[in-house]
Amino acid sequence: MGKLREPLDSHNCGLPAALEVMGERWSFMILRAAFNGLHHFEEFLGALGIARNILSNRLARLVEHGIMKREPLPDDRRKIEYRLTEKGLDLLPAMLALRQWGEKYGEGVPSNPVLCDSRDGVPIAAIGIRAHDGRALGPKDLEWRDRSDVGVTEKGDDSLKRPVLNVLR
Amino acid sequence: MGKLREPLDSHNCGLPAALEVMGERWSFMILRAAFNGLHHFEEFLGALGIARNILSNRLARLVEHGIMKREPLPDDRRKIEYRLTEKGLDLLPAMLALRQWGEKYGEGVPSNPVLCDSRDGVPIAAIGIRAHDGRALGPKDLEWRDRSDVGVTEKGDDSLKRPVLNVLR
DNA sequence: CGATTTGCGTTGCGAATTGCTACTTACCAA
DNA sequence: TTGGTAAGTAGCAATTCGCAACGCAAATCG
Fold it and tell me: Which residues of A touch B46 (CB under 8 A)?
């Protein structure tokens, strides 16, 4: 039957790579705190209910993977500033998508604060899937295609195309 | 800028709610497998390198939280079909955002298969943050605002003051 | 029919991870 | 010097993970 059954390991998917760090407990919560303006060990410690050794471990791991950077402050050399790197900032869409999902299905938890367009102060749109030209796409507008088949044929060989909706039913 | 320091617990953020299930190990990988068309216990078991008891536990938990549904097949009552629910399908944007991030910063892992617009077969756009009207936003176009401040006109512009809850989808 | 295989799940146990609490080291301030 | 703060470590209990073996009902085979 289906020829398109893939190994699912990290050789053909960025998801395992992403989860290597962000899949660990507290990673996303630490990141959220960082996005909300926290920068110091004791701040994270107070805001999340995390144990010291775990926080220490996670921060080291996030730094190690280039998601946060660690630099001692010159004016008080006890203090260490943890800041998001570019790589860390790039996780914002994933984090917001997760948060919006949790908010949609959670027990009436209206998230706060809310991320807004600074131009007009209006909250951002829901994170969603869009076509290359920006059109919003729903589950029925989507299909998995083999990478080698992408762009070359438009309506030629459909043998490698799979509708996403067969997942639903 | 100093006023916006929030408790970060699950009372004002959907992220902890989302992580309650999806933060556990293997949850995202199981979901990815489901999105790729796997439906049965032994299929998941073979595709991911997961232990039986863990898979059993995770599937039960995903079902328990309404992310997947479990139904025995009538033609072979040994077989159980695990399928994504609507709630599970709604995790696709978050999963894709994570995957794209992992792919961007991973060791040259071009993900396969690729999600495409079924209308023209072109791969979808990168998951990103957009304004309510669809404009793509960068990190510098964003600001956190208290929920009570959104919708009540800012900068004297009343044309956009309608309370935006779920603009898109 | 009886024997074997298949699909899904459970149990037991050692290993790894987490969490709690106390301790340490470096620094600043009086 | 004394006291307090910031970051990190150490020890130990509790939880979770992972592997292998076992259980069991439903299908399949001879």
Answer: none
